[in-house]
UniProtKB/TrEMBL annotation:
Site (Essential for prephenate dehydratase activity) residue list: 181
Organism ancestry: Bacteria, Pseudomonadati, Pseudomonadota, Betaproteobacteria, Burkholderiales
PANTHER family referenced in this protein's UniProt entry, alphabetically: PREPHENATE DEHYDRATASE P PROTEIN, PREPHENATE DEHYDRATASE-RELATED
Annotated protein name in UniProt: prephenate dehydratase
GO MF term set: isomerase activity; prephenate dehydratase activity
The entry's keywords: Amino-acid biosynthesis, Aromatic amino acid biosynthesis, Isomerase, Lyase, Phenylalanine biosynthesis
Record GO biological process: L-phenylalanine biosynthetic process
Protein's UniProt keywords contain Hydrolase: no
Recorded metabolic or biological pathway in which this protein acts: Amino-acid biosynthesis; L-phenylalanine biosynthesis; phenylpyruvate from prephenate: step 1/1
E.C. numbers: 4.2.1.51
Residue span(s) of domain Prephenate dehydratase: 13-188
Any GO CC annotation of this UniProt entry: cytoplasm
Amino acid sequence: MSCFKRPLQAQGVVAYLGPQGTYCETAMQQRFGLMVRTLSCDTVDAACQALVARQAQYAVLPLENSTEGVVTRTLDVLYDFPFPIIGEIVLPIHHCLLTKSGSLHDVTRICGHQQALAQCRRWLSLHGRGISLEAVASAGVAARLAATEPDHAAVAGAQAAQHYGLRAVVEGIEDEADNRTRFAVLGGAGPAATGFDCTTVIVSLANVPGALVDVLTPFARHGVSVLRLASRPAHGSGWNYRFYLDLMGHRDDPPLSAALTEIRHSMREIRMLGSYPRAA
């Protein structure tokens, strides 16, 4: 595990995908404030390991982008580390192309998180011809490289530019103007129902005809909306998959509670990841 601790100034410790200058740091600050104690980690796995080791009480992880979809490693980690989701943060994401000089002169490589590069695919294909693309662990890592390597540029945000002393070659290079990323807050006690909640569960199904229909039908019958549905390979079990469902409502709401009780009888496994207030 690789985590980097910053000076301690307030109660509580929050782990996040670092280093400084990432969108995850911005989301964490939006939720917990600027004076919270932080633990910067270089991977989502390391952030969850910090919870296991009790080095942090909470963790903030990127979960889903409105342009490119789910962050697959985070979904896998949510299964492997049984810490509840207690909240979500939705952050507008506006990418800049950053260099030390403010120009692309002598730049041979553009770095960014794989999701960030994909979110800027159209701009990069039009304006980055002849320049290699390199996926790195986070926007903060990309910005740190651009600050130390004159032939590197970074796809990152304004906070990264400020922290690493970079200048924007171009701002707003994301393909979709309404580009947003959803972050999950892990750890601590699950919140009570608010009337505007989301519940996330993982289900594993038998490989038989109609298995997924059998999962979804009770939610329709009880009037529960399925907000999101994603699948990930169930590692070590061939071509079997786990399904991640975001459901409208709190696990204690009678309609959702009834639907969850009903599907338990037909699932190989159902794992509750948490009920939490939806981001406005």
